[in-house]
Amino acid sequence: DAKTTQPNSMESNEEEPVHLPCNHSTISGTDYIHWYRQLPSQGPEYVIHGLTSNVNNRMASLAIAEDRKSSTLILHRATLRDAAVYYCILRAIAGGRKLIFGQGTELSVKP
Amino acid sequence: DAGVIQSPRHEVTEMGQEVTLRCKPISGHDYLFWYRQTMMRGLELLIYFNNNVPIDDSGMPEDRFSAKMPNASFSTLKIQPSEPRDSAVYFCASSFTQGLLAYEQYFGPGTRLTVT
């Protein structure tokens, strides 16, 4: 399975944008990029996913590098409720619905 | 929608006892996943089902663990006999085949298991 590399932790100020990086240099052409987050004492929740093009939804934006070896999750205005562990996950089509979670990035948001 | 429901939310048991964790997926979802989360190993996929049939159980740690899905609205994860190293938070998740959103997994609140 292709691996992802994320910083262990990041800090942000409230109401400022946050860019969470993810490296996946061994990604294959059919791997989807998924982002989930886990708030304290809760189960993970889906944030966004994409294949090649940048994606936007109500929660965040996903910017995918042209060579697909890295991607960035963008929270446009961080709130205190965005403090969570963010996971970048590659899902291989051949792997079916299997998601393999890494250690993620712990995001803290300062008021 | 009530979301994925797990019970119990907390379970404390003694080593050697049988433990049964329960999950009710979101109505209409056709995939169900069981995960385990510990500080040491992070979040691990144990097994997942499609239309009540186990598809991949390669993450099940050993024969002490078993999972069943007798119908579309109920699944169990059983540990027999339990050991202290099984202490973890166990999450159940479900997802639905619906185009691009088919890959979105909805997680339950988890069951915190402590084996003494």
Residue share in helices of chain A? Answer: under 10%
Low-confidence stretches of chain A: none
Helix segment tally of chain A: 0
Output the radius of gyration of chain B: 14 Å
What's the main sheet of chain B like? 7 strands, mixed
Strand percentage of chain B lies at over 45%
Poorly predicted sequence stretches spanning 5 or more consecutive residues of chain B: none
- Roughly how much helix do the residues of chain B carry, as a percent range? under 10%
Number of strands of chain A: 9
How would you classify the helix and strand content of chain B by structural class? mainly beta
Question: Number of DSSP helices of chain B?
Answer: 0
Largest interface: A-B, 20 and 23 residues
Mean pLDDT of chain A: 92
Let me know the largest β-sheet of chain A.
5 strands, mixed
Distance between the termini of chain A: 38 Å
**Radius of gyration from the alpha-carbon trace of chain A, in angstroms:** 13 Å
- What sort of overall outline of chain B do the alpha carbons produce when their principal axes are compared? globular
> Tally of extended strands of chain B?
11
Commentary on this structure:
The complex is a heterodimer of chains A (111) and B (116). Chain A is an all-beta fold. Chain A contains no helices and nine strands. Chain A has a five-stranded mixed beta sheet, with no helix packed on it. By secondary structure, chain B is mostly beta strands. In chain B, 0% of the residues lie in helices and 53% in strands. Chain B has strands at 5-7, 10-13, 19-24, 31-38, 42-50, 53-56, 65-71, 74-79, 88-95, 106-107, 111-115. In chain B, strands 2, 4, 5, 6, 9, 10 and 11 form a seven-stranded mixed beta sheet that branches. A four-stranded antiparallel beta sheet of chain B has the order 1-3-8-7, with no helix packed on it. The mean pLDDT of chain B is 93. The chains are: A mainly beta (111), B mainly beta (116).
